[in-house]
Design goal:
8-stranded mixed β-sheet; 11 helices
Length: 334
């Protein structure tokens, strides 16, 4: 879930790529934000950020499964830390594609950090989709891919879910049909509406039924929880950053990397070992979609997170699920 806490810039560095070529044909000098942990280690793992995630809110496993690895957490383009609509002159930021995001990360690793190969790419949610794209785009550069609560292709149901919060934001008065920046206004109402429309999807029905928001998070009512965590959380974001990432998410499909657009053949082309980790109660990246992907993966293992926390169970929302994932990743990397 998005963080409502003040932004934490601890340890963040930036790498500039002049005249970066985007998939849509445009070019722009971009900055890729990242943070290195345990940089003296020889084995390297890349962790891309998720939707609503910042570098220092990203689950990085550095105290457990990855404590002996050089872990590089990279902000995907569009997230507000790397080059994004919010830090680019209005109208100059291109349509974003997962190919752009992964390509920029590859350039950071190879041209700036001199990484010769990765032990793994591990990612949650949109980070999981990036882990799949990495495995198809650079099959000889990495040994392991770990998509957590993500998919190699955004399903029609997932796409439709995203239309709800998107419409809540873009139809708000203060969004002003996208002209809010030129008016000197931040669309607070629109971002709050986005968060409210998103909230119920992130956890499961059982999570709400058992009042986890009260028992474990300490909120008196579900309304208190929604306002504090989801309205306020997205209000810290820029609206166009939220939307450019959402559109990229909706269009996610590794099959698009092939001339024949075959989703199955794209998965079959993956050389890395893949640990597929969906959450049992995830409402928009359900384990059934992961089971379909497994049929085309030559070196895949399915490990379902048995949780009532829904999608956010894979993002570090609770200690039990995080410890379970940590152990699975540690064993898989051996």
């Amino acid at each position: 879930m998005p963080s409502s806490e003040d932004y934490d810039a601890t340890g963040i560095e930036r790498y500039s790529i002049p005249d970066f070529k985007f998939y849509d044909g445009s070019a722009l000098t971009v900055e890729v934000a990242y943070r290195s942990f345990n940089s003296s280690a020889s084995k390297v793992v890349c962790i891309p950020t998720c939707y609503g995630g910042r570098i220092n809110t990203t689950l990085n496993f550095t105290s457990g499964a990855l404590k002996e690895y050089h872990v590089i957490v990279v902000a995907m383009l569009g997230n507000g830390e790397s080059t994004s609509p919010s830090n680019t002159p209005q109208g100059k930021f291109p349509k974003l594609d997962y190919r752009d995001v992964v390509k920029s990360q590859y350039e950071l690793l190879t041209k700036h950090l001199n990484v010769k190969g990765l032990e793994a790419v591990i990612g949650f949610s949109m980070g999981g989709q990036q882990a799949y794209y990495w495995a198809v785009m650079y099959p000889d550069f990495m040994k392991v891919s770990v998509p957590i609560c993500g998919s190699a292709r955004t399903s029609p149901h997932n796409w439709a879910f995203l239309e709800g919060p998107r419409s809540a934001l873009t139809n708000s008065v203060d969004y002003a049909d996208g002209a809010y920046r030129s008016k000197g206004v931040k669309p607070i109402r629109g971002l709050a509406a986005f968060g409210r429309a998103y909230c119920a999807w992130a956890m499961s029905a059982a999570w709400f039924r058992e009042k986890v928001w009260q028992a474990e998070l300490g909120f008196e009512t579900v309304e208190d929880f929604m306002k504090a965590e989801w309205e306020t959380g997205f209000q810290s974001w820029d609206a166009e950053d939220v939307l450019v990432l959402l559109r990229m998410w909706q269009n996610g499909d590794v099959g698009a990397l092939r001339d024949d657009k075959s989703f199955e053949k794209a998965l079959e082309s993956i050389k890395a070992r893949v640990l597929v980790m969906p959450a049992r109660t995830d409402q928009y990246f359900p384990p059934e979609d992961s089971e379909i992907e497994m049929k085309s993966l030559k070196h895949g293992e399915l490990a379902v997170i048995e949780t009532i926390w829904g999608h956010v169970g894979g993002g570090g929302a609770n200690d039990e699920d995080t410890e379970w994932m940590d152990k699975k990743i540690a064993a898989f990397l051996k």
